[in-house]
Write a structure and sequence with these properties.
Elements (H helix, E strand, L loop, with lengths): L2 E3 L11 E3 H9 L5 H21 L13 H20 L14 E11 L2 E9 L4 E9 L6 E7 L1
Antiparallel strand pairs: 1-2, 3-4, 4-5, 5-6
Helix pairs in contact: 2-3
Protein name: 3-hydroxyacyl-CoA dehydrogenase
InterPro entries: DUF6459 (IPR045596)
């Protein structure tokens, strides 16, 4: 195991040294890093997309962070789910109930400059789902270009 001299941006150890793995981890977790921003964006968009499917949010609210194709796909899927909920007598008691979505696990992979792919496991009151997103930054703002919900 090797050690390196302490850098001001890294956490302090008792003898003034830190392990390299800790130094790399500290650099990856700096507030406001690109990876951190993508992680927060994809988590928020995922929860919002599941709220669209649950019927508690309109799909148009995601247009700022996604493409029109994704919004249209979510809108159609939400309409189908709403029709199914209204026609199934077993679900009539749950039609107006809000389903809270919780991100259980999230994996962020840097694919290329300005491109990340993210996989999430999300649990709500009804089921656990896998969600995959692709975030790209063609200009200044991040945008979700692919969204698949299992």
């Amino acid at each position: 195991m090797s050690i390196v001299a302490r850098n001001e941006s890294t956490p302090r150890r008792a003898a003034g040294y830190i392990w390299r793995a800790e130094q790399r981890a500290a650099q990856d977790l700096r507030p406001g890093t690109e990876r951190e921003r993508v992680t927060a964006l994809t988590r928020a968009v995922t929860v919002a997309a599941l709220e669209v499917l649950a019927g508690t949010r309109t799909a148009g609210q995601l247009l700022r962070w996604t493409t029109p194709e994704i919004v249209e796909k979510l809108r159609r899927r939400a309409e189908l789910l709403q029709q199914r909920r209204t026609h199934e007598p077993s679900n009539t008691a749950l039609q107006g109930v809000y389903r809270h979505s919780e991100v259980v696990r999230q994996r962020v992979c840097h694919v290329a400059d300005g491109v990340y792919e993210v996989a999430l496991v999300v649990r709500d009151d009804a089921r656990t789902r896998a969600v995959v997103l692709r975030a790209e930054r063609p200009e200044q703002a991040w945008r979700i270009t692919i969204l698949e919900i299992g």
